[in-house]
Amino acid sequence: MTLIMVLIFKTPLRKLVLMVLDRVKRGRGPIVVKTVAGTVLVVLISSVYSMMKIQKRWIDEGAVNPTDQVLMSGHLLQATLMGFCLFLALMIDRLHHYIRELRMRRKSMEAIKKQSRAFEDGKVEESKAMEEEITTLRAKLKHLESDLEMKTKEAHASEANAVALKKQAEGFLLEYDRLHEENQNLRNQLQSLDLTLSRSGSKKNT
């Protein structure tokens, strides 16, 4: 009962008792405990059997023998003690098992909490990094948009210049064709004048 009370309440003594029980359950400890428990159980069964024999004798004889009364009391006390010891041992074993399991679950819960905190911290850092990257990309996008706008304006200006130059070249071509035609007309006129002059010179010579 003292061990059970120690195991129920959280005190420094409980840690010592748990350490002792942990060592008892290691190695050959479980075999020894099972052997002792089996022996106690056999004694309990023997006491109960003896009590049943004495009670049967009382029923058959119809009288109560003082010696049998003493034996009955001894066997009853022995059976009660053995049963109570087995019950307390089982209670101590179960309490120890549940306390260990509770400790393991608490440790696992603490580990899960630490992992979740680390995961949340990682997510926060990752979100901060992503926000910084988004800000950088937005700045780059604005810069690229301004560059694109400038290039578009330059392209429009170049296109306008090209159209103007094309129109100017077309004007030059038209002027060239006109001048070429006038030149050709002047050459034709010169040729006709040369022919006229050569004919008039030949007539004078004759």
TrEMBL record:
Keywords: Apoptosis, Coiled coil, Endoplasmic reticulum, ER-Golgi transport, Membrane, Protein transport, Transmembrane, Transmembrane helix, Transport. GO terms for cellular component: endoplasmic reticulum membrane. Residues 127-196 form a coiled coil. The chain crosses the membrane at residues 31-52, 72-95. It comes from the Eukaryota. PANTHER family: BCR-ASSOCIATED PROTEIN, BAP, ENDOPLASMIC RETICULUM TRANSMEMBRANE PROTEIN. This is Endoplasmic reticulum transmembrane protein.
